[in-house]
Hints:
alpha+beta
Amino acid sequence: MEWQSMNKPSKTIGEWIDEQAGTLMKWSVPILSITRLEYLPEVESDMFIFQTPVHLKDAEKKSIIKILESGKPTAVFASPQVD
Length: 83
């Protein structure tokens, strides 16, 4: 969001994440908490759900990649839209 605000404030990444989260909740996937990417290395979760992870700082990318490579259940929702 910081990158988006500083570089392309007139563009949106879409509001459809709310629909995706609602669908997951219908299937009893518990969406109960949220954290900032800079806190990710200290967070434990049964299943991480990442929304549109683009324009990230290197440390943030490494945190997400580490979780993806861990084999833990993870969902990534992103828009394939290209500028």
